Amino acid sequence: MSAPPLFRALGRRTLALVFVWVFGLVLLVPLFGVTNPVAGWAVPTGWASDACAGWDPHAAPELDPPQCLRARQFRQLQAFRAAEGTEWQLGNGDMRARSALDRLERCVLGLIACPERPLVLGDMWYIFVKGHSESGEAVWLGDVVCAGSRLAGTRADTPQQDAVEENGYVFLALMPDLRRAYKNWAPTRLLSELIYQYWTDADQSFNCLSDPRCVRAEDYTPATNASYRHDLGAVPPSQLGQLPSWRVIGVSFWGSRPFSFDGAGQNAQYLWGKAEGEEWAWHTLGAKWQIVPYDYPGHSYLPLSIEQRCLQAPVVPYTERKDAVLILAKESPYFYHKDYLTSAWPRIVADLNDAGVEVWSTAKIVNDKPIPAGIKQLGQLSAAEYARTVGSVKAMLGVGLPEISPSPFVAMCKATPVVMPYWDTPSESAWAPFASRYAQHGIVRALGEPYAYSYDIRNTTELVARVIDAVGTEIQPFVPQDMTMAAVRERTRAFLRTDWEGLYDDIVANNGGRPPAHDDTMMERCFASGKCRPELLAQGAVE
């Protein structure tokens, strides 16, 4: 019997290709969550595809199936794009943001598999400076959220996946308006059906949770003091907040610290009215809703990791390095941070030079504070140049500031040991390793030799001896296990998969059925300290 005409026309080779294509689909479906590939849409696992049966994104919105979440998300995204320049505007990350919007569109059209709510919206200033800044915030958030940002040796628009995207979500970064905070919340309303979480600076999260233009009505509690209360009558319905408080995430490099363990720019007593030893949080639901770079007590720990950029260049062999120590100091006043060192620098430099060790600095000269004589001044370096310099010397020396900089981890990853000072015996508190009242970078010091050497900052003889020990010791590249890229991705995955709504429900139930609110003292101190500003209250006509 001869083959049917269609089969004869296709030929054996074509039939084989068709078979491979169909068989491939059978294999890919369970792997990627595509439940109906032939129908034209890739429906992510967990979505109720029947609610969107027959939906046509090209048809008029009034024809959308009422229960189809994807349709509502798509219409919101269309409206959001149309509102650019009025309700919101892009910052200096235009290409990144536009790429994120395009990916969101592919998510809601079902062309790629995404979570039901695929968007993590962020507006922290430091996500825009990766590759250009050595600030701890920029280094930390780089691997967590900065998709499409520039890495050393890549173009600015080269796509780079971050830990958020690797877990299936889209991170959309918008530059915040620091003068008019409420302007930042228009995107949270316009994209309310898409938002899984809203990541914002911790101070900003305090304002969001206290403002009816950001948080939804059931989570908004008016301030007791009328002077700090929003006029709800002045807020048009279109500007009322849509976010549940459990979707708001505060981002802080320093965390909500008890008064005894304040970090840079913090004073829990003055700014928030908190007594000695009292726990507190910017977030009404607690510190667990705050992400931080180190394992601060009670917070959500998404690790700082320098491993990715460290691995972009080979480690310089010990025998090819300079007999030099690099001072860990961003600015020249750091050399005078502790009185014990102010007058001791000439002797320290001379003793190290006598031992054959040069002393280098990349500090910026400010406030007419000179860099001590005898120290080789390299000037300010780019992030890539700084990393290369760290890897070209035989030791790094801390002199008291900065408190918990990422730079010592860069050094150890580049096989450069660090020498860190202490000046007091730490308490038993879990906060002690992160507190500048005891030492510089206590968590680095705790790693011990040969990676981290310690010296009493009042004992300059010990300082010189520890530097000489470090310079004379060859070490292997070292990254703490919980600060690897794998750890960042695993912790980010666990964070994103947490049942935040369930935790919220438990908190509300334990609070008499009422969502928690900021207490009167915190509100009053926020305005008195200037962190909250009366001109940002909803009063009369809103712009």
Describe this entry's structure for a reader.
With 543 residues, the chain is α/β, with parallel strands linked by helices. The protein has 3 domains: 64 residues, no CATH class; 267 residues, no CATH class; 167 residues, Rossmann fold. It contains 18 helices and 12 strands. Strands 2-1-3-4-5-6 form a 6-stranded parallel beta sheet. α14 links the parallel β11 and β12. α2 packs antiparallel against α3. The longest helix is centred in the first third of the chain and has 28 residues. The radius of gyration is 27 Å and the shape is globular. The N terminus is likely disordered.
Secondary-structure topology with pairs:
Elements: H1 5-32, H2 69-82, H3 94-108, E1 119-122, H4 136-145, H5 163-166, E2 170-173, H6 186-190, E3 195-201, H7 202-208, E4 248-251, H8 268-272, E5 290-292, E6 300-301, H9 307-310, E7 324-328, H10 339-342, H11 345-354, E8 358-361, E9 376-377, H12 383-390, E10 395-398, H13 407-413, E11 418-422, H14 442-445, E12 452-456, H15 460-471, H16 485-496, H17 500-510, H18 520-529
Parallel strand pairs: 1-2, 1-3, 3-4, 4-5, 5-6, 7-8, 7-10, 8-9, 10-11, 11-12
Helix pairs in contact: 2-3
Number of domains: 3
Tell me the number of strands. Answer: 12
Distance between the terminal alpha carbons, to the nearest Å? 80 Å
Which spans of ≥5 residues are poorly predicted at pLDDT below 50?
Answer: 1-48, 147-160
| Total DSSP helices | 18
Shape: globular
Major sheet attributes: 6 strands, parallel
Domain Glycosyltransferase family 18 catalytic: 356-497
Pfam family, one: Glyco_transf_18
Organism: Vanrija pseudolonga
GO molecular function: alpha-1,6-mannosylglycoprotein 6-beta-N-acetylglucosaminyltransferase activity
